[in-house]
Amino acid sequence: MKPNQTEMRLWAYAQGGLAADERGKMEKALVADPVLRRELTMISAYVDALPAEEPSQAEWDALETRVLAGWRAMQAGPEPEPSPAWRFRPAWGAVMLAVAVAAAFVVWLGGENAPPPQALKLPAEVAFSIGEPTATGLVAPLAVAEKAGDPYIAVHSLSRGYAQGGDEIATGDNQAVKLLFRKRITISLLPRTTLRFHELDGAVAPYLVRGAVVIETQPGDGEPFRLVAEGLKITDIGTRFSVTTDGKGEGTVAVVEGAVRVERPGVATAQVGAGKTGRWSPGRTPTRIERRTADVEPFASVERFFPSTPRDDGDGEEPAAKSARAPKVAPVNPAVGVVPPESQSSAKTSWQRTLESLSAPEVEAINRFYAEVERQMTSGYTVHAIENLENYIGDHRGAESEKARFLLAECHYNLQERSEALVAYQIYLGLYEDGAWRELAKARLAELMRQLGLEGR
């Protein structure tokens, strides 16, 4: 793969080979383009590591082997097969691969990859207008407070101590990470979550690609915290809330304290207060946001946001027909210690309707799964039950994950994790208007609101 003109000029710039006028143009481009600066950092790291004399082909091959080993250790991925077409004085493929890998490997080992000196002088709250040339571009301080497992974290963002557009963090099945953002905001990423940073209204803001995050903010004079999910701009007006999205058009905003503003830019805006849950659903052309309040106790009213047009996947099939045809997988056992749904009401619940759509083999398979979850919940392995339930929710949508969401709330409740339980019950009530365990969830939520001093807010 032959390098493009920009890459060749970056190489020449790093080695002092550009003419004065070309060097001036490159310096202006570096000031305005953070991506270009990152590429230069990688190239410079490689150039600085080159020996004084021209290496032999054997030395080139040894270098390539070492950096590939580091890349595999860091990414846990398969070794790329080098192509003979990459060879270019003495091996352009090896050079370009070594540039990216060697720089990342140096950072991974704790080597130097500090931000430009100007970045250290920036205030904690950065609010440049988009497109304004600055020494470092748009940045926001970022650090890791806690982590479980080994989540993939954009190496350069944490090594330099700030986040900028393009940085991404992702957690796996049994991984979680808590970030300290802008020195006064904690962002907790739950398992199977992807968070990407991008530029929004002249500042760096996180974008929830998939999964669930819990946000806690401390009072301050800086810009309000904003998060983007599914094209909605979510602005914090309070102190603690959570956001979930499946990455396919559905999601929720559950507020524990304070309030958040949910906005479809240029379309509609709504506010979600403490004890409330906002919900959005799939839409092809979301021209407006419809709001209605569910039949829930005043302390936990639920606002929903429905785009006016249903999702269209472009295959010509009506969404309702597709939903009816799709294979169903749903829990079937009542929650531990909970009255079975059929005894709660004479009307059919969403749970019962889901059960009726299952075949006998599906019922048997799901029975086995929930039997194991319930065994974990009653034998001291609730944390393992939480992991299994979160994984299940990540793989299922709508009524298929009703029981999993309720049991997840029960797990947090049993562990006396009151804030987490409160958010989980809010999400359950927001998603299932005729859910099988709705009355118990409302009672639990009322109790938690009293314990946390949030009753009546």
Structure characterization notes:
- By secondary structure, the chain is of the alpha+beta class.
- It has 3 domains: 5-108, no CATH class; 141-307, Sandwich (Jelly Rolls); 330-451, Serine Threonine Protein Phosphatase 5, Tetratricopeptide repeat, CATH 1.25.40.
- The chain is built from 13 helices and 17 strands.
- The strands form 2 sheets. Strands 1, 2, 3, 4, 5, 6, 7, 8, 11, 12, 15, 16 and 17 form a 13-stranded mixed β-sheet that branches. A 4-stranded antiparallel β-sheet has the order 9-10-13-14, with no helix packed on it.
- A hairpin with a 2-residue loop joins strand 9 and strand 10.
- Helix 2 (20-32) packs across helix 3 and helix 12 packs antiparallel against helix 13 (438-451).
- It is elongated, with a radius of gyration of 26 Å.
List keywords for this structure.
Serine Threonine Protein Phosphatase 5, Tetratricopeptide repeat, elongated, 37% helix, 457 residues, single chain, 13 helices, Jelly Rolls, alpha+beta, 13-stranded mixed beta sheet
